[in-house]
Amino acid sequence: MPLSEAEITRLHTAYAEASLRLAWSITKDQSLAQDVVQEVFIKLTRHGLVSPDSEVERTWLFTITGNTALDALRREQRRAGRDERWSAEIPLWFEPQDTAGHEELISALAALPEEQRTAIHLHLWEGQSFREIAKTLDLPTQTIASRYRYGLAKIRASLAQTSPQP
Amino acid sequence: MNDSEIETALRRLKWCTAPEVFLERSLTAALKEAQTPPHRPIWAIPTLLRWPLVAAWMLIAFFKFTKPEPLSADQRAAFAQLPPIAPAVLLAELKERRERTAACLLDLTQSAHPSPLP
């Protein structure tokens, strides 16, 4: 059932930023992430996905955003044949800070495989539990927990490499 | 650094806010999409037309599979030699010939084996 203007506006106000953050985290490309969010909200509008439960809505939104972002990323990589450039790109998605190791931390996060970065993103910045992430990505909870742990371990290793202890 | 320190450091990172221009454009696109009529795929057939179309397709399939095989050249040549005569007349003539043949056969058998009775 198509949505009313008020419902679309409510969904957009509530979830557009979160959707953009996730799409950005997956694609590591601002313009591609923006295209993804636009496509996500057109899909939401077309299919009328609303629920009285906001957690269900969030899960739907993250699921659609994740799938759309992955499709867009693969399409773009296939089209441009630039896997190397993509994986080496350092996204500027966080506000600049003066704290030591800020850039290294962002670089380490950006260098993670997409699935580990997505698990970390949904857990740390979107406040989802491992169980909720598992539901969103349609994967076992143990897999999500493993991806999260491996992701943190890689960041730790990366930071140790860039700033070795004396 | 242990895991909790890394988690804390990551949590301290602040995401850039989404550009206002983009948010407005995205919302406008979604609202515009809501106003446009739903896209009907080319294969979507209106309900009223479905059964008549199915019937038509079945008829076409029936005639396609039950169509007689074309005549061979020999058959066509043989038919071409037939006199130009209407089928009904031809049938009547055949019937008459059959009756005449039967009558001749009867005469012949009676003359070959005459009855002993006077």
Throw out a few tags for this protein.
heterodimer, A: 166 residues, mainly alpha, 8 helices, B: 118 residues, 5 helices, rod-shaped
Order of helices and strands of chain B: HHHHH
Tally of strands of chain A: 0
Strand count of chain B: 0
Radius of gyration of chain A: 17 Å
Describe what you observe in this structure.
The complex is a heterodimer of chains A (166) and B (118). Chain A is mostly helical and 166 residues long. Chain A has helices at 5-27, 30-47, 54-80, 83-88, 102-110, 114-124, 130-137, 141-162. Chain B starts with a helix and ends in a 6-residue tail after the last helix. Chain B is mainly alpha-helical. Chain B contains five helices and no strands. The mean pLDDT of chain B is 85. Chain B has helices at residues 3-12, 20-35, 47-66, 73-81, 87-112. Classes of the chains: A mainly alpha (166), B mainly alpha (118). The interface between A and B is medium-sized, with 40 and 26 residues.
